[in-house]
Amino acid sequence: MTGPSHKQDDAPLRCSAQPRRHAVGWCTHCHQPFGEAWLLVRTDGRAICRGCRGALGADVLDPSVLRERDPLRRLGWWKSAWHLLRAPHTRVAALLNAEGGRIARYAYAWSLVGSVAWLAWAIALEPQLLERLVESRPELASRPRAELLGWLALAMPLVTMVRLAAGLLALRVVAALSGYDREAWRPFARLFGLSQAATLLCMVPTFLGPLAFSAFWAMIMMAGLRVLGVQSLGKSFVFLLPTGIAMLSWGPHPLPLVGG
What we know:
The chain is mainly alpha-helical. It has 2 domains: 1-68, no CATH class; 71-257, no CATH class. The protein contains 12 helices and 4 strands. The chain has helices at residues 50-56, 63-68, 71-75, 77-86, 88-95, 100-125, 129-134, 138-141, 145-177, 182-195, 208-227, 233-248; strands at residues 25-26, 33-34, 39-41, 47-49. The chain has a two-stranded antiparallel ribbon. Strands 3-4 form a two-stranded antiparallel sheet. A hairpin with a 6-residue loop joins strand 1 and strand 2 (33-34). Helix 10 (182-195) packs antiparallel against helix 11.
Protein backbone atom coordinates (compact mmCIF):
# COMPACT_ATOMS: atom_id res chain seq x y z
CA MET A 1 0.00 0.00 0.00
CA THR A 2 1.39 3.36 -0.91
CA GLY A 3 1.96 6.13 1.59
CA PRO A 4 0.36 9.56 1.64
CA SER A 5 0.70 11.62 -1.49
CA HIS A 6 1.73 15.28 -1.54
CA LYS A 7 0.41 18.04 -3.74
CA GLN A 8 2.92 19.35 -6.19
CA ASP A 9 2.34 22.95 -5.15
CA ASP A 10 3.09 22.13 -1.51
CA ALA A 11 -0.15 23.76 -0.36
CA PRO A 12 -0.81 23.23 3.35
CA LEU A 13 -2.52 19.89 3.91
CA ARG A 14 -6.01 20.00 5.34
CA CYS A 15 -7.50 17.69 7.96
CA SER A 16 -9.71 15.04 6.38
CA ALA A 17 -12.21 15.29 9.23
CA GLN A 18 -12.20 19.09 9.58
CA PRO A 19 -11.07 20.64 6.26
CA ARG A 20 -10.89 24.12 7.80
CA ARG A 21 -8.03 22.94 9.98
CA HIS A 22 -4.48 22.10 8.89
CA ALA A 23 -3.20 18.55 9.10
CA VAL A 24 -0.23 17.70 11.31
CA GLY A 25 0.26 14.08 10.23
CA TRP A 26 -1.16 11.01 8.56
CA CYS A 27 -3.02 7.98 9.85
CA THR A 28 -0.83 4.94 9.18
CA HIS A 29 -3.92 2.82 8.47
CA CYS A 30 -6.06 4.87 6.06
CA HIS A 31 -3.18 7.17 4.99
CA GLN A 32 -5.31 10.30 5.24
CA PRO A 33 -4.09 13.60 6.75
CA PHE A 34 -5.59 14.72 10.06
CA GLY A 35 -5.33 17.56 12.53
CA GLU A 36 -3.80 17.14 15.96
CA ALA A 37 -7.18 16.56 17.66
CA TRP A 38 -7.93 13.60 15.38
CA LEU A 39 -4.66 11.69 15.65
CA LEU A 40 -3.79 9.19 18.37
CA VAL A 41 -0.63 7.17 18.97
CA ARG A 42 -0.78 3.38 19.05
CA THR A 43 1.22 1.37 21.54
CA ASP A 44 3.74 0.54 18.81
CA GLY A 45 4.36 4.25 18.17
CA ARG A 46 2.38 4.55 14.92
CA ALA A 47 -0.21 7.29 14.39
CA ILE A 48 -3.85 6.33 13.87
CA CYS A 49 -6.93 8.47 13.39
CA ARG A 50 -9.89 8.25 15.71
CA GLY A 51 -12.06 6.67 13.02
CA CYS A 52 -9.64 3.83 12.29
CA ARG A 53 -8.99 3.35 15.99
CA GLY A 54 -12.74 2.81 16.54
CA ALA A 55 -13.05 0.43 13.58
CA LEU A 56 -9.98 -1.63 14.51
CA GLY A 57 -10.26 -1.42 18.26
CA ALA A 58 -6.55 -0.56 18.36
CA ASP A 59 -4.87 0.14 21.67
CA VAL A 60 -3.58 3.71 21.96
CA LEU A 61 -1.40 5.56 24.44
CA ASP A 62 -2.94 7.91 26.95
CA PRO A 63 -2.01 11.57 26.31
CA SER A 64 -0.55 11.83 29.82
CA VAL A 65 1.81 8.96 28.99
CA LEU A 66 2.91 10.80 25.86
CA ARG A 67 3.72 13.90 27.90
CA GLU A 68 5.83 11.82 30.27
CA ARG A 69 7.70 10.43 27.27
CA ASP A 70 8.72 13.85 25.97
CA PRO A 71 11.76 12.99 23.81
CA LEU A 72 13.83 15.96 24.99
CA ARG A 73 13.23 14.98 28.60
CA ARG A 74 13.87 11.30 27.92
CA LEU A 75 17.04 11.71 25.85
CA GLY A 76 18.46 14.80 27.49
CA TRP A 77 19.75 17.89 25.72
CA TRP A 78 23.19 16.59 24.77
CA LYS A 79 21.93 13.31 23.34
CA SER A 80 19.08 15.01 21.48
CA ALA A 81 21.51 17.46 19.90
CA TRP A 82 23.83 14.63 18.93
CA HIS A 83 20.96 12.73 17.31
CA LEU A 84 19.93 15.79 15.30
CA LEU A 85 23.47 16.45 14.09
CA ARG A 86 24.20 12.82 13.30
CA ALA A 87 20.96 11.83 11.57
CA PRO A 88 18.51 14.74 11.20
CA HIS A 89 16.35 12.99 8.59
CA THR A 90 15.53 10.11 10.93
CA ARG A 91 15.48 11.92 14.29
CA VAL A 92 13.73 15.23 13.78
CA ALA A 93 10.21 13.76 13.44
CA ALA A 94 10.22 12.25 16.92
CA LEU A 95 11.76 15.34 18.55
CA LEU A 96 9.07 17.56 17.03
CA ASN A 97 6.70 15.98 19.57
CA ALA A 98 8.58 17.55 22.47
CA GLU A 99 6.83 20.08 24.69
CA GLY A 100 7.05 23.63 23.32
CA GLY A 101 8.41 25.25 26.47
CA ARG A 102 11.18 22.68 26.77
CA ILE A 103 12.16 23.25 23.14
CA ALA A 104 12.28 27.03 23.77
CA ARG A 105 14.71 26.56 26.68
CA TYR A 106 16.71 24.08 24.62
CA ALA A 107 16.96 26.51 21.72
CA TYR A 108 18.02 29.45 23.88
CA ALA A 109 20.64 27.47 25.79
CA TRP A 110 22.35 26.00 22.73
CA SER A 111 22.11 29.28 20.83
CA LEU A 112 23.75 31.16 23.70
CA VAL A 113 26.52 28.56 24.09
CA GLY A 114 27.25 28.58 20.37
CA SER A 115 27.20 32.36 20.11
CA VAL A 116 29.61 32.77 23.03
CA ALA A 117 31.95 30.17 21.52
CA TRP A 118 31.81 31.95 18.15
CA LEU A 119 32.62 35.32 19.70
CA ALA A 120 35.41 33.88 21.85
CA TRP A 121 37.10 32.36 18.80
CA ALA A 122 36.64 35.59 16.86
CA ILE A 123 38.38 37.68 19.52
CA ALA A 124 41.09 35.07 20.15
CA LEU A 125 41.99 34.73 16.47
CA GLU A 126 41.68 38.43 15.64
CA PRO A 127 42.96 40.44 18.66
CA GLN A 128 42.07 43.77 17.02
CA LEU A 129 38.47 42.77 16.42
CA LEU A 130 37.25 44.23 19.70
CA GLU A 131 38.91 47.57 18.96
CA ARG A 132 37.37 47.66 15.49
CA LEU A 133 33.92 46.99 16.94
CA VAL A 134 34.10 50.10 19.16
CA GLU A 135 36.20 52.42 17.00
CA SER A 136 33.09 54.35 15.95
CA ARG A 137 32.29 55.03 19.62
CA PRO A 138 35.09 57.23 21.06
CA GLU A 139 33.62 57.02 24.56
CA LEU A 140 34.02 53.25 24.44
CA ALA A 141 37.34 53.10 22.62
CA SER A 142 39.13 54.56 25.65
CA ARG A 143 37.76 51.93 28.05
CA PRO A 144 40.02 49.08 29.26
CA ARG A 145 39.82 45.88 27.21
CA ALA A 146 38.66 43.85 30.21
CA GLU A 147 35.73 46.23 30.74
CA LEU A 148 34.72 45.99 27.09
CA LEU A 149 34.82 42.20 27.27
CA GLY A 150 32.63 42.33 30.37
CA TRP A 151 30.01 44.49 28.67
CA LEU A 152 30.11 42.26 25.63
CA ALA A 153 29.56 39.17 27.79
CA LEU A 154 26.57 40.84 29.44
CA ALA A 155 25.11 41.71 26.06
CA MET A 156 25.29 38.19 24.64
CA PRO A 157 22.11 36.84 26.34
CA LEU A 158 20.11 39.76 24.95
CA VAL A 159 21.68 39.43 21.49
CA THR A 160 20.81 35.74 21.53
CA MET A 161 17.16 36.52 22.30
CA VAL A 162 17.04 39.08 19.48
CA ARG A 163 18.69 36.59 17.11
CA LEU A 164 16.12 33.88 17.84
CA ALA A 165 13.22 36.35 17.69
CA ALA A 166 14.38 37.63 14.29
CA GLY A 167 14.60 34.11 12.88
CA LEU A 168 11.21 33.12 14.30
CA LEU A 169 9.56 36.28 12.98
CA ALA A 170 10.92 35.68 9.48
CA LEU A 171 9.78 32.04 9.57
CA ARG A 172 6.34 33.10 10.83
CA VAL A 173 5.93 35.58 7.98
CA VAL A 174 6.93 32.99 5.36
CA ALA A 175 4.57 30.40 6.88
CA ALA A 176 1.70 32.91 6.94
CA LEU A 177 2.30 33.90 3.31
CA SER A 178 2.34 30.18 2.44
CA GLY A 179 -1.11 29.70 3.94
CA TYR A 180 -0.31 28.24 7.37
CA ASP A 181 -2.49 29.55 10.18
CA ARG A 182 -1.53 29.95 13.85
CA GLU A 183 -2.35 26.33 14.72
CA ALA A 184 -0.29 24.94 11.84
CA TRP A 185 2.57 27.35 12.65
CA ARG A 186 3.46 25.74 15.98
CA PRO A 187 5.35 22.74 14.52
CA PHE A 188 7.46 25.17 12.46
CA ALA A 189 8.38 27.06 15.63
CA ARG A 190 9.35 23.78 17.31
CA LEU A 191 11.48 22.86 14.31
CA PHE A 192 13.29 26.20 14.43
CA GLY A 193 14.03 25.66 18.11
CA LEU A 194 15.38 22.16 17.55
CA SER A 195 17.60 23.39 14.72
CA GLN A 196 19.55 25.54 17.20
CA ALA A 197 21.38 22.38 18.27
CA ALA A 198 23.62 23.10 15.28
CA THR A 199 25.12 26.12 17.10
CA LEU A 200 27.20 23.65 19.12
CA LEU A 201 29.40 23.35 16.03
CA CYS A 202 30.55 26.94 16.62
CA MET A 203 32.92 25.45 19.19
CA VAL A 204 35.03 24.30 16.21
CA PRO A 205 37.97 26.74 15.79
CA THR A 206 38.23 29.37 13.05
CA PHE A 207 35.53 30.08 10.49
CA LEU A 208 34.89 26.35 10.03
CA GLY A 209 32.62 26.30 13.08
CA PRO A 210 30.11 28.91 11.84
CA LEU A 211 30.18 27.37 8.36
CA ALA A 212 29.43 23.95 9.81
CA PHE A 213 26.65 25.48 11.90
CA SER A 214 25.05 27.06 8.83
CA ALA A 215 25.20 23.79 6.87
CA PHE A 216 23.82 21.58 9.65
CA TRP A 217 21.16 24.14 10.58
CA ALA A 218 19.91 24.01 6.99
CA MET A 219 20.00 20.18 7.01
CA ILE A 220 17.92 19.96 10.19
CA MET A 221 15.45 22.53 8.91
CA MET A 222 15.04 20.80 5.55
CA ALA A 223 14.54 17.42 7.22
CA GLY A 224 11.88 18.92 9.47
CA LEU A 225 10.18 20.77 6.63
CA ARG A 226 9.75 17.47 4.79
CA VAL A 227 8.11 16.00 7.89
CA LEU A 228 5.77 19.02 7.99
CA GLY A 229 4.71 18.52 4.38
CA VAL A 230 7.05 20.92 2.55
CA GLN A 231 8.38 18.52 -0.05
CA SER A 232 9.92 20.48 -2.90
CA LEU A 233 13.43 21.88 -2.73
CA GLY A 234 12.30 25.23 -4.04
CA LYS A 235 9.63 25.65 -1.35
CA SER A 236 12.16 24.63 1.31
CA PHE A 237 14.49 27.43 0.20
CA VAL A 238 11.58 29.87 0.42
CA PHE A 239 11.39 28.99 4.12
CA LEU A 240 15.14 28.78 4.72
CA LEU A 241 16.56 31.89 3.07
CA PRO A 242 14.60 34.65 4.87
CA THR A 243 14.85 32.78 8.18
CA GLY A 244 18.59 32.19 7.81
CA ILE A 245 19.33 35.77 6.78
CA ALA A 246 17.32 37.21 9.67
CA MET A 247 18.94 34.87 12.17
CA LEU A 248 22.54 34.95 10.93
CA SER A 249 22.61 38.73 10.71
CA TRP A 250 22.97 38.55 14.51
CA GLY A 251 25.54 35.74 14.38
CA PRO A 252 27.08 33.24 14.49
CA HIS A 253 28.53 33.71 11.02
CA PRO A 254 32.08 33.35 9.67
CA LEU A 255 32.61 36.97 8.61
CA PRO A 256 34.47 38.22 11.72
CA LEU A 257 36.79 35.21 11.48
CA VAL A 258 37.81 35.77 7.87
CA GLY A 259 40.40 38.29 6.88
CA GLY A 260 41.72 41.21 8.79
